Amino acid sequence: MTLEFVWRLLFAFGCGVAIGVERQLRQRTAGLRTITLVTSGACLFVSLGMLMGNGITQIAAYVVSGVGFLGGGVIMRDKGSIQGINTAATLWCAAAVGVLSGTGYFAPAVAGTLVVLATNTVLRELSRAINAAPVANADVVRDYELSVVCREADEVHIRAVLSNAMYSEPLSFQSLTSQDCDGQPPRVQVTATCRTHPKDQARIEQVASRISMERGVSSVSWSAKEAEPAPE
Fold first, then answer.
1. Which CATH superfamily is domain 136-229 in?
2. Which residue ranges does UniProt annotate as crossing the membrane (predicted)?
3. What's the distance, CA 196 to chain centroid?
């Protein structure tokens, strides 16, 4: 029994080292030692239950609860974003590998280790490739501002042209404002705000080109604001 216990502990230790090395190379909060301690500790608790004849399932549930508190300690909020969720999930999976090792299910423990490593390496590159895709492929919307500087006498006409252009594209028309400009002759800046999917950004340029040909227009410009998730 003692030899079997040592073998299971060493097996859990080896699986923890395999997972922990990858985490340590990436300088994560929970690195080599933390991951190895989680797998070894989970194995020890389950092995203790087997040695004492207590329910393994109940002890495994306690292990999961304990790792939950440990995982909560590595999750942090930084400037509105959540950091450390992947590390916490890795700790959770490492505990599962330790439980499998402690109960003698070595093949599932190896499979679990390989899955964790594949998730943190292969899928990492896939997620980076997805994140590097053009924003037009994402489910987002973006606010655009289209500004037109025209003669004061043509303000009403330009406002009407802008409104009609926004509705005809169609674009989600948000607001239309006017502001006096310094200098002579008197001029007015008319600013239209709309919201649309980034893939339809070319429509904004079409509207700007159309407005630039109107009489009394001296300049036309447009800009995009930060993208945000589209509403469900």
1. ACT domain (3.30.70.260)
2. 6-22, 34-53, 59-76, 88-118
3. 22
> Which candidate, 178, 161, 87, 176, places its Cα nearest to that of 124?
87
Most confident of 36-45, 63-72, 156-165: 156-165
Say how far residue 144 (Cα) sits from the centre of its chain: 24
Other CB atoms within a 10 A radius of the CB of residue 180 amount to: 11
- For 219, what's the count of Cα atoms within 13 Å in the CB-facing half-sphere? 9
143: closest CA among 187, 198, 80, 106? 198
| Separation CA 155–CA 186 (nearest Å) | 11
Whole-angstrom CA distances from 193 to 39, 67, 97, 190 are: 55, 49, 54, 10
The whole-angstrom separation of Cα 40 and Cα 47 is 10
Residue 105 region by backbone torsions, left for phi larger than 0, else alpha for psi between -120 and 50, else beta: beta
Q: Give the mean model confidence (pLDDT) for residues 117-144.
A: 70
The DSSP H or E segment spanning 135 is none
58-90: per-residue pLDDT in tens?
A: 777 777 677 776 667 666 655 445 567 777 888
* For range 159-175, the mean pLDDT: 79
Instruction: Identify the residue with better confidence: 39 or 70.
Output: 39
Intervals of CATH 3.30.70.260 along the chain: 136-229
pTM of the model: 0.50
Q: How far apart are CA 130 and CA 205, in angstroms?
A: 27
Give the number of other CB atoms < 10 A from CB of residue 7.
13
